[in-house]
Amino acid sequence: MAYDRLTVTLTLVLALGVAGATADDKVGTVRFPTSCSAAVQPDFERAVAMLHSFWFQASTNAFVAVAQQDPGCAIAHWGVAMNLLGNPFAWPPSPKALADGWAAVERAKAAGARMPRERDYVAAIEAFYKDAATVDHRTRALAYRQAMEQLAGRYPEDREATIFYALALNATALPTDKTYADQLKAAGMLEKVFAEQPQHPGVAHYLIHSYDYPPIADKGLTAARRYAAIAPAAPHALHMPSHIFTRRGYWQESVDANRASVSAMSSHFDQLHALDYLTYAYLQMGQDVAAKRVVDQVGELPKLTVEHFVTGFALAAIPSRYALERGRWADAAQLALFGKEFPWGRFPQSEAQLVFARGLGAARAGDPAAARRDADRLGALRDGLAAAKVGYWAEQVDIQRQVVSAWVARAEGRKDEALTLLRTAAEREDATEKHPVTPSQLAPARELLADMLLEANDPAQALREYDAAMRVEPNRFRGLYGAARAAELSGDRTKARTYYSQLVTLGEKADGERPELRQAKVFLGR
């Protein structure tokens, strides 16, 4: 597929990708001894390799084929159950996936694994699926994590047990833990395996997740730059490096990764996710025409069949980013939910992204009444998430509500209240981590605080906030411009020149007319 003609799948399904894997496709190397027949062992290990790259349908098909060839291969049903977990960083699975996963566990138990180690793998995944209708998701996820910890301890030479335990550590890590204890523990185990098995797809993949945090993202660059070459046939393996590239502000590398990933998909559920990362990277380089092309093509999608919030998140975020990153507040204020048939009511965290962008746009465009309605809607969405015990997203949506409320106060002349609200929102946002579903907050609260301070004619304080924001979100177009402008207005021409120079470099391949770039060139030409 040509890079300038991105096409989007017509049907997206939860956690199920293209089943088009062939025996010649390169998916990495996995060593997973089993009691299954020697004839199916290579196919089983290949299925595990695809599982490690979240190529769920291709992996499921391979496990099913193994079970058909060797009905006594109980561990193959374990593989099906593992695939039905879907992306653990986008948990919880849908009710149908939970029911189908439990059925796969039952088939594995009925087949009767021949080895105690295989029975332990089945028992571990059973801990996740058991009593899904009555026991909350996190309790079951932690039970699975504990089971994998015990399994890895029981079989210290089994590297797959270590790898899956590391994944469970990452998937259950608390977003409020700024020590990254679980992630670093996982990374420590994975780095040792990576030295032994440099072609293992899961190790590279989960190292990226382990380091997908601003203070430690540099540690993930080696895995990020190797993963796509390890498993080039797996679409998710082509996308994942962009998580680290985004953290470091390496926008062209992120564009290249996501273009390759989208090109490899036809009906893979990750496609819109990759397109969201792609849109974000384009906008940071001032490539607005390229970003608009993605927005338009996403807008032309027919009815979507989905079971998860990830799809809705991208549908809401992509057009929102296009307006917000360009500072087109009036455009943002006119945003409407795409696809009336999409079940927005089931995914309030997805709807909230567009409502937030619309409310922020309305407030900054001078329509506080409309913005207040969106703030009220964010409050209702927050309440729904809290009632559903989706605590992380309830908190994130409430932060968005507070940000919009701050800009409403600013529009109504309550300047001190506005700054207090926005500073509190920034501190709350700093206390948690962004979700892997998104390359960045739609509009980082601390950067917005800097914007407000700049508008309030306090450029020195604004510069301090821009600098703080860029330590978390480096090389952002709006952050660099804001910092340059704040430095210029506060009389620090040396710092202004540094930031304006970085901005011009960032926009070297811009395909639109960003006024910020013109202003930077004028300053540098003096």
- State the secondary-structure class: mainly alpha
| CATH class call of the largest domain | Mainly Alpha
Do you know the CATH topology of the largest domain?
Serine Threonine Protein Phosphatase 5, Tetratricopeptide repeat
Note the overall shape. globular
- Number of helix segments? 26
Ranges where pLDDT stays below 50 over 5 or more residues in a row are 1-19
Bin the helical content: 55-70%
Please, how many domains? Answer: 4
Topology pattern, helix = H, strand = E? HHHHHHHHHHHHHHHHHHHHHHHHHH
Mean pLDDT: 92
What is the tally of beta strands?
A: 0
* Through-space gap between termini: 45 Å
Alpha-carbon Rg, integer: 24 Å
CATH second-level architecture of the largest domain: Alpha Horseshoe
Largest sheet: none
Write the layout of secondary structure elements.
Blueprint lengths: L40 H12 L3 H14 L5 H9 L11 H17 L4 H14 L7 H18 L4 H14 L8 H16 L4 H10 L10 H10 L4 H5 L1 H8 L2 H13 L7 H14 L3 H12 L9 H16 L4 H5 L14 H17 L3 H20 L3 H21 L3 H16 L14 H11 L3 H14 L4 H13 L3 H14 L8 H11 L1
